[in-house]
Design brief:
- The chain has five helices and no strands.
- With about 80 residues, it is an all-alpha fold.
- The protein has a single domain, classed as lambda repressor-like DNA-binding domains (434 Repressor (Amino-terminal Domain), Orthogonal Bundle).
- α2 crosses α4.
Length: about 80
C-alpha cells in the first residue's frame, strides 16, 4: 500500500466517522475537488505534508490525530524516496 492509498483510506474512515461529505471536506480544507479526486482515486502517487495538514484542518483535528492510525504503522507501507 502506498502512502497515498493510506491517506485515502484514512480520509474515507474519517468521513464516515464524522458523517461528513467529501464536498464539505473540500470546502473546510481548501483542497480543490480535482485534487481530492486524484487522492481518492489513487491517481496521485505522492501526497505532500502540506496536503495532509490541510486535510487535518478540514477535519478540525490536529495533524497528529489524523496520522494516529494503524494504517500508517503498517510495515507494508511503501515509502517513495
Amino acid at each position: 500500500m502506498t502512502v497515498n492509498d493510506a491517506v485515502a483510506k484514512r480520509i474515507s474512515m474519517l468521513l464516515k466517522e464524522k458523517n461528513m461529505s467529501q464536498y464539505r471536506l473540500e470546502q473546510e480544507s481548501g483542497i480543490q475537488h480535482g485534487s481530492m479526486q486524484c487522492i481518492m482515486n489513487g491517481r496521485n502517487k505522492t501526497v505532500t505534508l502540506s496536503t495532509v495538514i490541510l486535510l487535518a484542518r478540514g477535519f478540525h483535528m490536529p495533524l497528529a490525530e489524523f496520522l494516529n492510525n494503524e494504517i500508517f504503522d503498517s510495515k507494508d507501507l511503501e515509502i517513495e524516496q
